[in-house]
Amino acid sequence: MRFRGVYQHDTRDCGVACLATICNFYGLNVPLSYIRELEKVNMNGSSIYGICKAAEILGMAADAYQGEIEELLSNVNETKEIAVPFIVHTIKDDLYHFMVVKKISTKSVWLFDPDEGNIKIKLDTFAKIWTGYFIAFQLTPLFKKENLKKGAYQNYFLFFIKIQKRIFYYFGNFFVNCGNYNSKYPHFPTYY
User: Fold this and answer.
1) Which CATH code for domain 11-147?
2) Which pLDDT tens digit goes with each residue over 148-172?
3) What average pLDDT does this structure show over 113-123?
């Protein structure tokens, strides 16, 4: 399958973008705003628990693990218990950060960093930034390949049409009241 990563919009969106990347890999195109709501992102960003719960709502079984680099290599490459791609919890610039592992070998790790894009780093460098936590995914029968982004602009347009009357009402009152502000009695119309 072709791998297309989703970039984060701000520093709190790395977990959201990583889950969107996993969804894209399996054929589900989801808006970041929807995943952000599912994960219940706060001022600190996403949590491992939030990512797992959001993945379950989207039709994937998500399991969080903690381990050592040797265990990870064994479970991915030898026993094949963990399928790529999966999300890893790292430390980047002294902040917690999520990334997607696309491939891992005994020498290198191929990652999608939602902040930088596709990167390849040495395994020992990865071991230094990895916190030991990762989230593995499996599709369930509830998972559907679809494009939930389709019609996003139509939804915004319909929303604008629905609130159009209110917008014109408030702008109209604003300009009328601005005109009356300089009169002798601002709350009453002036007749000459």
Assistant:
1) 3.90.70.10
2) 876 655 555 555 555 565 566 556 6
3) 97
In tens, the pLDDT along 3-13 reads 789 999 999 99
Residue among 131, 124, 93, 89 at smallest CA distance from 109? 124
Please report, for the chain, the start and end positions of each structural domain, with discontinuous segments joined by +: 11-147, 151-192
> What's the residue count for the chain?
192
Residues 6+ apart with CB under 8 A from 135: 48, 51, 52, 55, 62, 63, 64, 65, 86, 87, 88
Give CA 174 to chain center in angstroms: 38
Q: In what order do the strands lie in the sheet with 60-66?
A: 60-66, 130-139, 86-92, 95-104, 108-113, 117-122
Across all residues in the chain, what is the average pLDDT?
Answer: 85
**Buried residues in 163-172 as b, exposed as e (16+ CB within 10 A):** eeeeeeeeee
- Three-state secondary-structure class, residue 15: helix
Is 70 exceeded by the pLDDT of residue 65?
Answer: yes
Dihedral class, residue 14 (left if φ above 0, else alpha if ψ from -120 to 50, else beta): alpha
Measured CA to CA, the distance from residue 145 to residue 143 in angstroms comes to 7
